[in-house]
Design a protein that fits this description.
The chain is an alpha+beta fold. It is built from 6 helices and 4 strands.
Length: 133
């Protein structure tokens, strides 16, 4: 296991929520991913204030960096203003209607579809890191 505080971000029909995967007691919510991330930082601050230091979970005690994990719905909603469904279709091979279904909670992607989305975004990230202007 890596030394990172894993925070899972999940979308609901009208908001976002988050919880610490490897740290009990860290919960957050908000109307956007940005609000949830801010609330997570506040939750960590409160955790430190109300929990005796001798009982802090290892990720808090050692100040591990946060690694944000998204469910597919929250990821697609978060990046809607950046990636159109047409662009995501070209990148992933998943048709736009199915991507819309994932983003709107109509259906949940199978493991293979999740991997296609993740791999396409990672590939784009690597390409962007390697370019120069």
């Amino acid at each position: 296991m890596s030394n990172k505080l894993i925070i899972n971000i999940c979308a609901s029909s009208d908001s976002f929520g988050a919880f610490g995967e490897n740290c009990e007691g860290i919960y957050a919510s908000g109307n956007s991913v940005a609000e949830v991330k801010k609330d997570v930082l506040e939750a960590i601050k409160i955790y430190k204030e109300i929990t005796p230091e001798t009982k802090w979970a290892q990720p808090i005690k050692e100040n591990w960096p946060i690694e944000w994990h998204y469910d597919v719905q929250s990821l697609l909603i978060f990046y809607q203003g950046i990636f159109t469904n047409a662009a995501l279709e070209r990148m992933t091979g998943i048709n736009q209607k199915q991507l819309w279904n994932y983003a709107n909670g109509v259906s949940k992607p199978r493991k293979q579809a999740k991997e296609k989305i993740q791999n396409a975004l990672h590939s784009l990230g690597h390409e962007l890191l390697e370019l120069s202007l």
